[in-house]
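Customer escalation, tier 2.

The customer says the design service returned an amino acid string that "doesn't look like it belongs to this structure." They asked us to rerun it and document both sides in this ticket. The original structure tokens are below, unchanged.
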């Protein structure tokens, strides 16, 4: 069973793209997967993340405070500003601009841990950075979205804070508590955590593509280009800043991946809930999820052949 789940999880990009194509060509197949399904499926994936965390993961923050501070700071300063810059450079319409900025303001995605492993980066640091950015997303994601996207549409940052708390912090904390009090139960359920995350965002992608098929067809080029540029710049800026500060190669790779890869599922859920009249905002999250996996896979393949110096 474990071998099958690993095989299934490793083919995540294929499932993602395949269902997106099906939903685009035949929207009726995925229209049923709407707002409530999107919210609860992503909350379940966050619970799965919490179930895999142990006290040692939190202690690791104290063992590498400089690296954590750098990665966290880059995640919540460089990436939101990159999103704003891409929106300005491409002069996209308000819905797409809001979506790009929202994605860029979200925490790191769990896929970054897998990419870090493949790229021979520091996996422990990747896990810690994903944890830190996710736990504090309830504050930073709404604040950056309001600050940078507020000029396009009104943003209720406090309502978004509450949504982010429900979507990220509450499930993760619940998962950590279950692992603390019921470790055997957590082991059994947590083993399925990565698979739940894969299923969650694959289905979210299908649901949003189906609901936004017409808008996507009219704006496919700008959606693809903006998502590609956002993540390419994120990877590049994260790596360059870390190397400029003379951190080791493994740390530079990790920060690059954490900055360049966002939680597209969270962005999609927030866009669906808070910007329902802007279908391109949610569509940007979907394209982000696809593009970051493509860019991440290319980067990981390049770095895998070039082990960092000891």
């Amino acid at each position: 069973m474990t071998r099958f789940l690993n095989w299934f999880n490793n083919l995540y990009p294929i499932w993602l793209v395949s269902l997106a194509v099906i939903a685009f060509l035949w929207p009726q197949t995925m229209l049923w997967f709407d707002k409530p399904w999107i919210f609860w499926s992503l909350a379940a994936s966050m619970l799965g993340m919490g179930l895999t965390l142990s006290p040692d993961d939190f202690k690791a923050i104290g063992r590498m405070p400089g690296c954590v501070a750098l990665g966290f700071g880059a995640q919540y300063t460089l990436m939101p500003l990159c999103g704003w810059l891409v929106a300005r450079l491409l002069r996209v319409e308000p819905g797409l601009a809001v979506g790009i900025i929202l994605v860029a303001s979200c925490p790191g995605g769990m896929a970054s841990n897998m990419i870090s492993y493949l790229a021979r980066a520091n996996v422990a640091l990747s896990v810690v950075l994903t944890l830190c950015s996710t736990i504090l997303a309830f504050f930073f994601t709404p604040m950056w979205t309001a600050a940078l996207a507020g000029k396009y549409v009104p943003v209720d940052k406090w309502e978004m804070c509450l949504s982010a708390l429900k979507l990220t912090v509450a499930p993760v904390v619940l998962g950590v508590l279950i692992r603390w009090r019921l470790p055997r139960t957590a082991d059994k359920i947590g083993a399925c955590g990565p698979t739940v995350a894969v299923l969650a965002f694959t289905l979210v992608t299908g649901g949003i593509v189906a609901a936004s098929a017409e808008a996507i067809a009219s704006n496919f080029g700008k959606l693809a280009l903006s998502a590609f540029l956002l993540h390419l710049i994120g990877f590049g800026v994260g790596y360059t800043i870390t190397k400029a500060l003379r951190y080791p190669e493994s740390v530079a790779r990790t920060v690059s991946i954490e900055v360049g890869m966002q939680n597209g599922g969270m962005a999609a859920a927030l866009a669906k809930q808070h910007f329902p009249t802007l279908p391109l905002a949610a569509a940007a999250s979907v394209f982000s999820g696809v593009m970051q996996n493509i860019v991440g896979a290319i980067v990981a393949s390049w770095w895998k052949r070039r082990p960092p110096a000891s």
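Tier 2 assessment: The sequence is consistent with the input. The chain has one domain: 2-304. The radius of gyration is 18 Å. Sent an explanation to the customer and offered a walkthrough call.
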